[in-house]
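can u do me a favor
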């Protein structure tokens, strides 16, 4: 599977989770809605873990400021080489340093 196909699959997964979240809101308050919330949260966590694993396999760095881990973004700095920044906590990791 090429990178564009993988991205398209991840985007479809995100869209499916969003549709399920919206559908949950149609349920009346009660045990079924509470159960749906738990199941949706578990699915969301599993999806984010899969996304993080794929990113790590593709060479991206991960930040442990949250669980599941945040995928760090590459920021180019000519003087110091490649660095990675977490979009959530804004920490910066140099490519010369091992991940946290």
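np, heres the sequence
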């Amino acid at each position: 599977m090429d990178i564009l196909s993988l991205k398209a699959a991840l985007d479809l997964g995100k869209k499916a989770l969003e549709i399920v979240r919206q559908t949950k809101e149609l349920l009346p308050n009660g045990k079924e809605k509470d159960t749906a919330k738990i199941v949706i949260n578990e699915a969301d966590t599993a999806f984010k873990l899969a996304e993080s694993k794929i990113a790590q396999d593709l060479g991206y760095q991960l930040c442990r400021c949250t669980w599941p881990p945040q995928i760090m973004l590459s920021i180019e700095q000519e003087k110091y080489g490649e660095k990675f920044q977490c979009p959530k906590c804004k920490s910066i990791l140099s490519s010369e340093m091992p991940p946290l």
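Helices lie at 3-24, 31-57. hope that helps!!
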